[in-house]
């Protein structure tokens, strides 16, 4: 049986006759111009464990090695081709992002110990650093492949967020949505409203307070950019706002500040949607957020506003979306925002209802498309990573039709949930993790992995054979076919020290 195993599954992978490529002390990484940064990143991955010098950019060095080439053409900027054989490995892409994704595939073609930290100098000897001879062509099904991390319910450090960025980049996810505010905490410095972090940032569900300064946020944005990940900041409005309401009395209906909140109920808070102070607050927060965010998106929440009338809610989100759009960004909102038919044109909806939409979820989602926008799919019963596993309720919750198995997280199609939502209107897929029950990255990783691997494959890989709309020559993927690739990948998680739940569903190695 072939030992070649890649997640997410590439569009096509063909084994070639002939010897593998062997990385050795004389190998070089050939990469120039824009490709050089990806070459440096690759060298940073390969040098520690192999002990090889791996000079980058040295086209003049006549050494076999890994060649990273940008060939701008009409191909998908996120795609790449990878050709390996005894003379070397060549990755070709239309952009540096495509090369980066090719490098993530190449990592998985090396023996798993390539990912392990060095325990001692003698570790570098003895491994045959061979890459099998293959021809891979690959490109993503969806342009937006995301993960959401709730840094509001509990506090996460800059180092934690960087670690999660590295983990998701491995899976070719290219957006990290940070849920920066909620009832239990406000986690981002806003200069014009300093009490948001002084008071609103002082609490969390399980631990103490904390927030990201603007310098912290800039550091996260830059680190993410180096891994071709775009940060999508979310300030949740008009509900999920108790941290702000406790910080500023004038945002409240009735003008009295609330107490800080450490519980895990949802839906009880709202800003006063008609107060002049509320609109100064929205204007200022959006302006500062847009100034510090180079990416194209601002997420303005809109979920579970359960105390406002439908009319007040619709009026609020319409105006908020226009404030967001006026900042030059494209606004994203949870699907409830689609209750308004007066959103800024092009506003993107994020669907969080179930595989079978309940109540008005489908209609609210289609409303974004009618208003010129597209949709990100995060169905809670399969892509919410905080829902219990069938054999572990140590962390997480189970409201979303839980528990959720790895097989369930793998067995759905983004284009088959909302009737009438065409594949072209699906911008992408996002796996969210809400952290009410989680303290630190160890807890997050245990809940996210391995299910996030399943969701990443849904976001990247072509619709499998048998799925409506799949290409006639689509691969025959199934949970049975995915499972051994997932357990093989887990050896890399072991080497990287990324925690995951060894659910009884899978035959772990
Ligand atoms: C719902 S689904 C939420 C979050 C909670 C989660 C779990 C959605 C958009 N919002 O605020 O964290 O349930 O309690």
Number of helices: 14
Number of strands: 18
Structural class, please?
alpha/beta
Main sheet specs: 8 strands, parallel, barrel
Which CATH architecture of the largest domain would you pick?
Answer: Alpha-Beta Barrel
Cα-to-Cα separation, first versus last residue: 16 Å
CATH superfamily of the largest domain: Glycosidases
Our estimate of the beta-strand percent is: 15-25%
* Tally of discrete structural domains: 2
| Low-confidence residue ranges | none
Shape: globular
Q: Report the C-alpha radius of gyration, rounded.
A: 23 Å
Bound molecules: ligand TNX
| Mean pLDDT value | 96
Helix content: 25-40%
User: For this structure, what is the CATH class of the largest domain?
Assistant: Alpha Beta
Strand order of the largest sheet: 9-10-13-14-15-16-17-18
User: What is CATH's topology name of the largest domain?
Assistant: TIM Barrel
Active site: 304 (proton donor)
Protein name: beta-N-acetylhexosaminidase
GO cellular component, one term: membrane
Family: Belongs to the glycosyl hydrolase 20 family.
Structural description of this entry:
With 509 residues, this protein is α/β, with parallel strands linked by helices. It folds into two domains: 12-138, Chitobiase/beta-hexosaminidase domain 2-like (Chitobiase, domain 2, 2-Layer Sandwich), CATH 3.30.379; 151-476, Glycosidases (TIM Barrel, Alpha-Beta Barrel), CATH 3.20.20.80. Helix content is 30%, strand content 17%. It is built from 14 helices and 18 strands. The chain has helices at residues 35-50, 96-109, 158-169, 195-198, 214-225, 242-247, 276-292, 310-326, 361-370, 380-383, 406-410, 441-448, 451-460, 479-496, and strands at 12-15, 21-22, 28-31, 65-70, 80-85, 88-93, 130-131, 134-138, 144-150, 175-179, 181-182, 185-186, 230-237, 297-301, 330-334, 348-351, 375-377, 426-433. The chain is globular, with a radius of gyration of 23 Å. The structure holds ligand TNX. The site of ligand TNX has 10 residues, from loops.
